[in-house]
């Protein structure tokens, strides 16, 4: 198909494996690499929610994952590309976040909520779609309203 980028086969295999792992009858805690990918995909989903996935949000995502996972720029960009592919194939947000909740420890989920608020606020516009999805995601991840509000305030300071 013209204009549709093809992803490398290994990314497809990795995404298929991760989706199967997330949605297994009894999901187990994800390996570090899979957790990174799933949480980054969630940041991408939030950034895309207002249908304006712009450079400020992309740069914020890459900055977050580079700092969080101690990655160089090229590695952060590669992870973001993999996460974009996963996000496009992941099921609805409810099932996706609930699967992450079961497979990722609370502290990692709380930290990703702070990171997600930073992405939502990155373009300087608090789009209603992003804020509504952000609140829903925090709840589905099992992050308390209090922790989500603290995360939002910390993200706004950064």
UniProtKB/TrEMBL annotation:
UniProt cross-references to InterPro entries, sorted A to Z: DjlA_N, TerB-like
Domain of life: Bacteria
Location of the Co-chaperone DjlA N-terminal domain: 36-152
SUPFAM superfamilies documented for this protein: TerB-like (SSF158682)
A Pfam family the protein falls into: TerB
Protein name: Co-chaperone DjlA N-terminal domain-containing protein
Native source organism of the sequence: Sinisalibacter lacisalsi
């Amino acid at each position: 198909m013209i204009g549709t980028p093809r992803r490398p086969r290994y990314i497809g295999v990795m995404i298929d494996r991760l989706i199967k792992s997330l949605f297994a009858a009894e999901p187990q805690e994800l390996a570090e690499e899979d957790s990174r990918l799933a949480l980054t995909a969630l940041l991408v989903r939030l950034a895309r929610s207002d249908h304006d996935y712009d450079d400020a949000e992309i740069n914020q995502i890459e900055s977050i994952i580079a700092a969080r996972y101690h990655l160089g720029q090229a590695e952060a960009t590669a992870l973001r590309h993999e996460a974009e592919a996963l996000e496009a194939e992941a099921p609805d947000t409810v099932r996706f976040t609930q699967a992450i909740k079961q497979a990722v420890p609370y502290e990692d989920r709380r930290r990703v909520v702070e990171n997600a608020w930073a992405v939502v606020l990155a373009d300087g516009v608090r789009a209603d779609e992003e804020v509504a999805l952000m609140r829903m995601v925090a709840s589905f991840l099992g992050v308390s309203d209090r922790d989500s509000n603290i995360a939002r305030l910390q993200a706004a300071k950064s």
